[in-house]
Amino acid sequence: MALPARRAGTAASSESTETIATLLGGFSLEATFPSAAEIEALKKSAPAGTRIYLSCPPNHSAEKLVEYAVNVRNAGFEPVPHLTARAYPDRATLDTVLSRLTREAAVRSVLAIAGDRDDVAGPFEGALALIESGALEAHGITEVDISGYPDGHPKVDNKVLEDAMAKKLPALARRKLAVNITTQFCFEPDLILAWIRRIRASGIDVPLRVGVAGPTSMRALMRLALRCGVRASVRGAMNPKTMQLFGDATPDEVIRALAEAEDRAQFGNVTVHFFSFGGLVATSDWAVAVSDGRITPTANGFRVIK
């Protein structure tokens, strides 16, 4: 999978700085229906070809994804829309959305998830049913992300999650679809590292995109964390070491721990996926600064050089 080239660094390098910067090469961003103005502004920040994941809230039509995917594509980025399986009332609706995404926005990659809703609108109970429908490759999709949960899922047992992943991977392989695992955001480095080690020890060697919350206020972060069900690691976000000026939280401690793990060489293809809770452009600016090496290491994390 081709990744956006990292820009040349502008700060004095050190082994730690270079390790962290290298990890962020090819970082991705996630947003919910970003405005045209945000996408236009992003052109001045994110490298061309950056993957922009587009989430679709349960109360919105999946066809709304098309408009935003077109904007992302026209701005020179790679749109990766979420396909929430439980939201589709029938195969015809799924076909319509996929047809428009591939035809109008040249979408080739999607994130297949069950969707955060208790009811099932149609025949797709979860991502596996959507994958096995054959609709993805029929419409020209060549790459599929599936979800991972280092902090667990608020409604699904870990064993169920593991079994689902074990079924989705061969289903994608049979269809000759490339695959990434993109995770829900997590605040605790130890949880993330333990999850990666379990994944790799089980023989799964596909690329991993480790989800982190981009820079945002502590109040917003706590609200989102509780809503998204990452309660077990909320204490990590409240750690003073994750906070910078004005009570803002940044994912520097998580990123540094991941970059400098003693067994990092065993992790394979791993990069970072940013949830842009503090704004798409602000998150990109921070990620680009880190990937450029414009950082100063601190005791456990680092600070971005303005």
Properties at a glance:
single chain, 306 residues, alpha/beta, TIM Barrel, two-stranded antiparallel ribbon, 12 helices, disordered N terminus
| Rg over CA atoms | 18 Å
Strand order of the largest sheet: 1-2-3-4-5-6-7-10
In DSSP terms, counting alpha (H) and pi (I) runs of 4 or more, how many helices? 12
* Overall pLDDT level: 88
**Overall 3D shape:** globular
Level-2 CATH architecture: Alpha-Beta Barrel
The proportion of strand residues reads 15-25%
Low-confidence stretches: 1-13, 232-238, 240-246
Number of strands: 12
Whole-number tally of structural domains: 1
Helix percent band? 25-40%
**What's the CATH first level?**
Alpha Beta
Largest sheet: 8 strands, parallel, barrel
Notes on the structure:
The chain is an alpha/beta fold and 306 residues long. It has a single domain (15-304), classed as TIM Barrel (Alpha-Beta Barrel). The protein has twelve helices and twelve strands. An eight-stranded parallel β-barrel has the order 1-2-3-4-5-6-7-10. It has a two-stranded antiparallel ribbon with strand order 8-9. A hairpin with a 4-residue loop joins strand 11 and strand 12 (302-304). Helix 1 (15-23) packs across helix 11 (252-259), helix 3 packs parallel to helix 4 (91-105) and helix 8 runs parallel beside helix 11 (252-259). The longest helix has 17 residues, at 158-174. The radius of gyration is 18 Å and the shape is globular. The two termini are 32 Å apart. The model is unreliable at 1-13, 232-238 and 240-246 (pLDDT under 50).
